[in-house]
Amino acid sequence: MWLSVARQALIAVFLAGALLAMVFPGVASDDNKTQQINTPVATFAIAYGELSNAQFAPLESQFYVPKAQAVWLKANINETRLNEDVVLTVERPLLGQVAFYHRDSAGSLSPLDGEHVSTSLRHFSPHLIVHEPKRLQHVYIKITSPYRSQSQISLTSYANYHSQVDNRLFASGVFSGVLLLLSVYMFATGLLSKRASLLSIAGYILSLGGFYIIHQGLTDVFFSYQTSLAIMQYSSSLLAAALGCCLLFFYHFLVRRRLTGTINTMTQSMAYGYLLVAAVIVFSAGQLAFAVQAVLVLVALAVAMAVLLQQQQGNRKEVWFCGVVWMPILLLMGLFAVGQLTRTMLLSTSLTHLLVSSHLVLLLGFVVWHDSESRRNFIKYTRVDKDTELPNKFALLTALEELELKNKAHTLLLFKPLILPTIKLNFGLSFANQYINKLFKKVSQQINTYGNAAIANPVDTEIYRLEEDVFAIILDGKIEVSQVEQYVCILCSVFEEGVGFKDTKIVDSLEVGVANHPMHAKTTEKLVQRALQALSTKSQNGQRWHLFDVENSMSSERQLQLSSHLKGAIEQNQFSLFFQPQVNLTTGKVFGSEALLRWLHPDFGYIPPDEFIPIAESSGQIFEITEWVLEQALHYQAQITQVMPDHVISINISGRDLNRRELSVQLITLINELSLAPSQIMIEITESVTIGKEAELKGVLDDYRSIGVKVAIDDFGTGYSSLAYLSKLGFDELKIDKSFVMDIETSKSNQTICKATCDMAHNLGSKVVAEGVEDVNSYIRLQAYGCDYAQGYFISRPLPFNEYISWLTKVSDSDDIKSFLVR
After folding, report:
1. What is the largest CA-CA distance in the chain?
2. Could you identify which of 131, 263, 534, 754 might form a hypothetical disulfide with 548, taking C-beta atoms 3.0 to 4.6 angstroms apart as the criterion?
3. Do 300 and 243 touch, CB atoms closer than 8 A?
4. What is the distance, to the nearest Å, from the Cα of residue 603 to the centroid of all Cα atoms in its chain?
């Protein structure tokens, strides 16, 4: 708030100062005309060059000062016409010097000083106070300037002179004070807000103010005459500094983040180059020639023009504003340069004040306008997506909340273009955003056309961008399912029809999710959540869209709850291992067992692996679970081998763990610590995980085989294995999925699959394990097919460790486990 008030106050002060600076010089000029002593009181003559060779010619009042050439004026004062003190004034030429002399009794020139000439105003207002007209009847004045300038000489009363000087000092002081105050404000604001653009403007105004003070001779007011002479040497330095800060202004306001490459680098480099030139001039205490200064100005002007011409179409408003801001300065420089080249004077003091004041007013106006535009854009982009110009998430939630407050029925339709991520990857973000803009114009037109025809009191339907690739439409009022279907059809048809863009025909398909207020949710947050849940539902049977389903929602919530509880399941000993025996169908003896993970949650009860393993994989918690299973299973194996030395244990490994070197290291460590036989450890890998990864998988499996463990492919038959695939990887075991075994007695096709699998595996040098053996008939048939091992409920359900040990003890004395099982 205070920044805004300060800004408005500065504007008011600045405008007042500018008006004073423009008005007072004119008033002083009027006073000169009305109060000036009549010319018969004094006569003036002018001569150029050395005084010794001077040829004086009559002079009215105004005259020109050539560049770097002395001008001599001779004033003859008529003492009989004077009845009061008068002041002989000379308008100081640009950066020039004025000295007053008189002839002494010996006829030589002596400088006038002390009571006649004020040392504190020699540059600001060169003058001679005439107290003794008789003594100062003949006055000589020497004038020099580094530039071609215009000047004038006049004789006025002492009172009028003081009034004129006071007016000029006041106007110049206000103008200089406003410049200083404005530059300090810009510096402070730039430092506090860390905005280099404001710092560059502050530097520009400060340099321009110093340049103005020097050229107006105001240094005499603050410093001694000799110090003022020294300060005048820094005029070129301030000019270079002003040009450098000006280019920094262009860089920060117009170039940075909008132009790249040559223009950007050139503008920044030139800006700092000018500041370096300014520093060099200061330390060398030199003064640049007019031609060099002109070159600096022209180069800066060329760079600024290059920046303006390179601006994009969307920034033309700023470009034109910048052009207007600098037009007064360009006009000032142009008139000054023309005057120097043509030896004519086109600039007056009042015109100079007017142009400089106009420039500063416009500059401050640009800064205020630019800040206002920035705030307006910030406010705009709180509701609009910057990339696509679509209403954003905030705008969507605001619209939904307004409908919620009015308790109006409405439907939220979310859709996700499936090809959009691919477009971003292959063509880039800019192309994708342009594609969205072009396509959504077509979508919006067709949706509004349908809405105007099908809905009472229709309004234009906006398309919102909820997330990166998710967009939304709000259907206001009570909408039937058939109408929702029609909206979905319109959306899908537009995307499926495609749109031509840069010689590319882009065809897309959509995922659509729908939720209704108040049927599915009574709050905006819940409504968006329900629509997202519907959007995430996998399509089946060619469904184009999904309405929010409570059962799916409950399933999703349960998955989130399970995911949050998985971390503590290991720490709280909620996991356990069960063992399902495997029997050698040839010998009828127990061959080994498969270690199966079980989770018994205190609140949810028993949770099957088919439910929590995918959650663990997707959440990244499967690694810890696999390590726990491997460690527990091998510790149990060490105990089992004390009862059954040849026992083989099968351990399931998640596909996400295959490439983890830590797992193989853990396996080697446990085998050594527990003194286990590696050949009695079987690693089971699901078939679907291995498809398409043969080259990568072979190296991983070879690493496990180098340890000495064996590898089995689990759930064989549910994937897309080929003979070449099996031959290349060389599994030790193939486990026939239970879906082919459980109804083997009634299904001819499953009988064929099981027998063919056994023959194929044996030909490839692999053993076969049949899962899901439920009865003795299946057991006998698999024996006839030559199947090597069997497991299933006919043999035993999965057992806890202690029960498994007891079961092993009971069956160990049987010659054939089948006779034990059928008793």
Report:
1. 157
2. 534
3. yes
4. 46
- Statement to judge: residues 84 and 142 lie in one domain: yes
Rounded distance between C-alpha atoms, residue 770 and residue 778, angstroms: 10
Contact 89, 83 (CB under 8 A): no
In sequence order, which residues have a C-beta less than 8 Å from that of residue 308 and are 6 or more positions away?
254, 319, 322, 323
Is the four-CA dihedral 680, 683, 687, 692 of positive or negative sign?
negative
Total-model pTM: 0.52
Question: In terms of residue numbers, what domain contains 604?
Answer: 568-821
Query: pLDDT tens digits for 111-136?
Result: 887 777 776 777 788 888 887 665 67
Asked if residue 201 lies in contact with residue 188, where contact means CB atoms within 8 angstroms, the answer is no
Which residues lie closer than 8 Å to 49 by C-beta, 6 or more apart? 69, 70
Q: How far apart are CA 334 and CA 753, in angstroms?
A: 96
- The Cα–Cα gap between 315 and 287 comes to 39
**531, 412 Cβ separation under 8 angstroms:** yes
Answer whether 415's CB lies under 8 Å from 471's CB: yes
Alpha helices in 64-157 (DSSP H): none
State the residue for tokens 């004073």: 20
Query: Within this chain, do residues 488 and 534 fall inside the same structural domain, yes or no?
Result: yes
Q: Which two tokens stand for residue 811?
A: 């069956």
Report DSSP letters for 24-56, one per residue: HHHHHHHHHHHHBPPGGGEEEEEEES-GGG---
Q: Which residue(s) pair with 423 in the sheet? A: none
| Chosen domain end from 120, 151, 168 | 168
CA-based R_g, the chain, Å: 48
Q: What share of the chain is helix, strand, coil (3-state, %, to 5)?
A: 55, 20, 25
User: Do 238 and 206 have their domain in common?
Assistant: yes
The reply to whether 645 and 763 lie within a common domain is yes
Whether residue 733 contacts residue 651, with contact meaning beta carbons closer than 8 Å, is answered with no
Do 721 and 591 sit in the same domain of this protein?
Answer: yes
Bridge partners of 48, per DSSP, are 71
Is residue 160 domain-shared with residue 132, that is, in the same domain? Answer: yes
* Side-chain-side CA neighbours of residue 567 (13 Å): 6
- DSSP, collapsed to helix, strand or coil, labels residue 154 as strand
Q: What gap in Å lies between CA 120 and CA 142, rounded to an integer?
A: 18
The alpha carbon of 112 is separated from its chain's Cα centroid by a whole number of angstroms, namely: 68
103 SS3 class: strand
Q: What does the block give as tokens for 293?
A: 């200064």
